[in-house]
Write a structure and sequence with these properties.
The chain is α/β, with parallel strands linked by helices and 446 residues long. It folds into three domains: 4-106, Probable tRNA modification gtpase trme, domain 1 (Gyrase A, domain 2); 134-206 and 379-439, tRNA modification GTPase MnmE domain 2 (Four Helix Bundle (Hemerythrin (Met), subunit A), Up-down Bundle); 213-371, 3-Layer(aba) Sandwich (Rossmann fold), CATH 3.40.50. The protein has 15 helices and twelve strands. The strands form two sheets. The protein has a six-stranded mixed beta sheet. Strands 8-9-7-10-11-12 form a six-stranded mixed beta sheet, with helices on both faces. A hairpin with a 6-residue loop joins strand 1 (4-8) and strand 2. The longest helix is centred in the middle third of the chain and has 25 residues, at 151-175. The radius of gyration is 29 Å and the shape is flat.
Length: 446
């Protein structure tokens, strides 16, 4: 890459400081041509006045930081300009930079893409960086930071190293079949492949990483006037959905985003389940039932004034019995239902604190289980493409293990395909078609 790119790397808008970044062979030369400095010492802050070379007009008093290649984020020569963050100042600086020969405005994610091409980070680490930038909850921040620091990449490389060792044994058996090699060289590989297949299968069984990144879908369902909307409003701390004594008030799905104990929640209010009076309400109920079937967690509200035991599906669920302040015996009812249904059941009042802490605590516990938080620093799969690659590897290993009696050349090919599948996670093989997808979600300047 011979061109030099530039962009605003800090958030747009009014701020105390704005950071502009240049990367490429002309970065240092351009910075010096705009400033009153003769040289920039690497990794030192330099106070400088920037001027427009066209007419000498002063632009701003800034701090310049120089990061020579290859010891920079992109692996190229990089200069950061820390300017005053007023919109007019930033616009003037960007306009002047755009007029300099050899410079162009960076595309979204281009700084990070250059870092990937220059081996400063792999694809999984780049995705972790993107997730860190977009993280809104503490769990998202921690998970993204672990991935950016290489947790997933290190695990993938360990898996690949096991496959490389196994393949080396099999190929030795093929290439030196006439030599005096120990018997059963290839057979000795089989237990290692079995152990690796089991490890990959366990990783595929957990969806905690993807749920942390995308948000846990919690659908609130139940009959009309059970208190669904009141519960949601109190949980998020504002009047986000309409509360009314009139049945059928909620007719469409209402999605709300919530940080619950550090976990990202997508909370969905739904139409009350009943025999609908009209076409619109019937459609709302149909959509509610469809969303319930797709949810990570179903929160079923029961009207405590007329408690009817709910019929639950197979997935995780929490049952809340409302109107604890207006009906007797609801705690005993909840305890009995919990034993019968095999899920947490709690009675609470929407108008007081009775049972509220226990209900929210039960919800938090279920969310923690779904996100698998607290499992240590092990790598987790956070994106669909990771899951597809690991699944392809596991399928290749399964074919290897089932290939009794086949020629060793064909058996070895299954291990090669499995290795290639893993290599797609970090970007070692066949990634050109993935690059636009991976970096398209980045902001300009990163």
């Amino acid at each position: 890459m011979t061109d030099t790119i530039f962009a605003l790397s800090s958030a747009p808008g009014r701020a105390g400081v704005a950071v502009l970044r240049l990367s490429g062979p002309a970065a240092h030369g351009v910075a010096l041509s705009l400033s009153n400095r003769d040289a920039l010492k690497p990794r030192h802050a330099h106070l400088a006045t920037l001027s427009d070379p066209a007419d000498g007009a002063h632009l701003d008093q800034v701090i310049l930081l120089s990061f020579p290649a290859p010891h920079s984020f992109t692996g190229e020569d990089v200069v950061e300009v820390h300017a005053h963050g007023g919109p007019a100042t930033v616009s003037a600086l960007l306009a002047v930079l755009g007029q300099q020969p050899g410079l162009r405005l960076a595309e979204p994610g281009e700084f990070t893409r250059r870092a990937f091409h220059n081996d400063r980070l792999d694809l999984a680490e780049a995705e972790g960086l993107a997730d860190l930038i977009h993280a809104e909850t503490e769990h998202q921040r921690k998970q993204a930071l672990r991935q950016m620091e290489g947790a997933l990449s290190q695990q993938v490389e360990q898996w690949r190293a096991m496959l490389i060792g196994a393949l080396a044994h099999i190929e030795a058996d093929i290439d030196f079949s006439d030599e005096d090699l120990p018997d059963g060289v290839a057979d000795a590989v089989r237990p290692k492949i079995v152990a690796l297949h089991n490890e990959l299968t366990a990783s595929l069984a957990s969806k905690g990483g993807e749920r942390v990144r995308q948000g846990i879908s919690v659908v609130v369902t139940g009959p009309p006037n059970a208190g669904k909307s009141s519960f949601i409003n109190r949980l998020i701390g504002r009047d986000a959905v309409i509360v009314s004594a009139e049945p059928g008030t909620t007719r469409d799905l209402v999605d709300l985003h919530l940080d619950l104990g550090g976990a990202p929640i997508i909370l969905t209010d739904t139409a009350g389940i009943r025999d609908a009076d009209g076409i619109v309400e019937a459609e709302g109920i149909r959509r509610a039932q469809h969303r319930v079937a797709q949810a990570d967690l179903v929160l079923h509200m029961v009207d405590g004034a007329n408690p009817v035991q709910p019929v639950l599906g197979d997935g995780p669920a929490l049952v809340l019995v409302s109107k604890r302040d207006r009906a007797d015996g609801l705690d005993n009812l909840a305890s009995g239902w919990a034993d019968e249904l095999g899920v947490p059941v709690a009675a609470l009042s929407m108008k007081s604190d009775d049972g509220w802490d226990a209900a929210v605590g039960a919800l938090e516990n279920l969310v923690q289980d779904l996100t698998a938080i607290g499992t240590g620093d092990g790598a987790v799969l956070t994106r669909a493409r990771h899951r597809q690659a690991v699944a392809a590897c596991a399928e290749g290993l399964a074919r290897f293990l089932a290939a009794d009696g086949l020629p060793e050349e064909l058996v070895a090919e299954e291990l090669r395909l499995a290795m290639r599948a893993l290599g797609r996670i970090t970007g070692r093989v066949d990634v050109e078609d993935l690059l636009d997808v991976v970096f398209s979600d980045f902001c300009i300047g990163k």
